[in-house]
Amino acid sequence: MIGVRRPSRNGPRSHPIFARVYPRIGHAAERRGVAEHRRSLLDALAGRVIEVGAGNGLNFPHYPSSVTEVIAVEPEPRLHELARRAAASAPVPVTVADGAAEALPFEDGEFDAAVASLVLCSVHDQPGALAEIARVLRPGGELRYYEHVLSHRPLAARVQRALDATFYPPLAGGCHSARATGDAIRAVGFQIDREERIAFKPSPMLPTIPHILGCAIRS
Asked: I need a labelling partner for 34 at 20 to 30 A (CA). Which of 43, 126, 149, 203 fits?
């Protein structure tokens, strides 16, 4: 699948209610441990980076000085504007660009690294998005990922699948809680360098949700 450009889907993807609520949820989760996960995600990253689905820019403060440039793609209009404002105070140069993960508006092999942080749950076409990330990475480039995933516990997994089949994706900006994202990364052809599974409770009102934090290499 690497090297195949997908049909264009670069139009805005508006989730106006979710986009107003998400920054509050995100900042609360930062205080409960997500900020530390973001620091681990980006530790020792270097070169020119594409961040797919930047949201409101919560990763931006954590980029190390070894990163020369970040191009951050965010298709939701309200979150795009919040990310643009956050970019102004980032410790490295950040440009917020239009675009969708399934059809990135960049040439093959443009980037040294890619970052996907709490976004592969909500893309319309997860294999297509991962193939696009692979396409714009140079050979040997890194994909850093931090995502919530399908539980290994059968009862919890059934609940996640039931939520995904009903009200949860429309309520949560397209988020699907039951994706096996680590397997999807492997299926596209990335080689997993390291991957940690984290049991994380992002809010007192939410159950513990399994997350993965890892690094994969584009062959």
From this structure: 126
